[in-house]
Design a protein that fits this description.
Bound molecules: cobalt (II) ion, zinc ion
Oligomer: single chain
Helix content: 25-40%
Order of helices and strands: HHEEEEEEEEHEEEHEHEEEHEHEEH
């Protein structure tokens, strides 16, 4: 499986939370080649099951991305919207977004209505429509849009929208494609609606009832000018999550990750992310609790149209997932 190709394909698919059909179809077509069964549950989570004995292990990566959802259109044809996931509101001004039907628009701000930073209520989307009627012919309340952000490679680094979390999807999809023999019962779950509160992961974990779970997602880095203090650096290996706002990772899972990385010569670093959480947060609180850890891809400029990650880090995350899945626990 060509990592760059699947990353490019998947980051450029538009699937905001609650609207995951397009990305799910892409992943389903690939996953079906490598496992015993692939199914979609009521929430829309896609599960690829590789049957086996041993431990029941769940790997989760969310396939949704942040975006906006249309709430109203004014008389002049400007579209009002709400956030889907954690948008940085002041940074949205003048960015371009694309709706599921392909229509693009520019986010504008009512400059005279605020001092300093704009609120969401000060922003609108201009799709170039002449008036309300023209706008409503193209866009309806409830339509979602995502950032426009093309895929480019700069040396070993890649830049694109939606590396959060198509990079994580690529990690577990590629690991799935490479695992030949495993003593374990493996579930690779591509979850929905993570960006609006880990919603898909919660029901998927309840259904699967895993003994061990690992969420794969992006994490911030502390390696840019004036970045907040954080030990994670882009290009320094797979990040083994210790903690984020949603979870204290299970110590057994964490130590097995570290042993596996050491044994197989996989570069790794320890991660504490003080802002935000991941699917791991929902999974570990399912039923009577699940031993859960996280593997993270160090990523700069998360939740922007230009997220940046390192291809070697992504490959090292693939190796770590493969190593965890293939061993006796
Ligand atoms: Co995110
Ligand atoms: Zn994410």
């Amino acid at each position: 499986m060509d990592t760059l190709k699947i990353l490019k394909d998947m980051t450029q698919i538009n699937s905001a939370s609650g609207n995951e059909t397009a990305i799910r179809e892409y992943i389903k077509t690939e996953a079906e080649k490598y496992c015993d069964e692939v199914y979609v549950d009521a929430m829309g989570n896609l599960t690829a099951h590789k049957k086996g004995g041993g431990k029941k292990i769940m790997f989760a990566a969310h396939m949704d991305e942040i975006g906006i959802i249309v709430t109203d259109t004014d008389d002049k044809g400007f579209i009002r919207f709400s956030a889907v996931g954690g948008l940085n509101i002041p940074n949205l001004v003048n960015l371009r977004v694309r709706f599921s039907n392909g229509i693009e628009g520019v986010i504008g701000a009512e400059e005279d209505k605020f001092k300093g930073k704009p609120a969401l209520s000060n922003l609108y989307i201009d799709i170039g429509a002449a008036d309300k009627k023209a706008a409503q012919k193209q866009i309806s309340v409830g339509d979602t849009a995502v950032f426009v952000g093309g895929f480019v490679k700069r040396g070993d680094n890649i830049i694109s929208k939606a590396l959060d979390n198509r990079a994580g999807c690529a990690v577990i999809l590629k690991a799935l494609s490479e695992i030949k023999e495993s003593p374990n019962d493996l579930y690779f779950v591509f979850t929905v609606q993570e960006e609006v509160g880990f919603r898909g992961a919660r029901t998927a974990a309840f259904d699967i009832e895993p003994e061990i779970a690992v969420a794969v997602d992006v994490t911030d880095t502390g390696d840019t000018p004036s970045a907040p203090t954080m030990a994670v650096e882009m290009g320094k290996g797979a990040a083994v999550k210790v903690m984020d706002r949603s979870i204290m990772c299970d110590s057994l899972v964490r130590s097995v990750m570290i042993e596996t990385a050491k044994r197989e010569g996989i570069p790794y670093q320890l991660e504490i992310m003080t802002d935000g959480g991941t699917d791991a947060g929902a999974i570990h609180l399912t039923r009577a609790g699940v031993k859960t850890g996280g593997i993270s891809i160090p990523t700069r400029y998360i939740h922007s149209p230009s997220e940046m990650a390192n291809i070697n880090d992504i490959e090292n995350c693939v190796a770590l997932v493969r190593g965890l899945a293939s061993q006796q626990w």
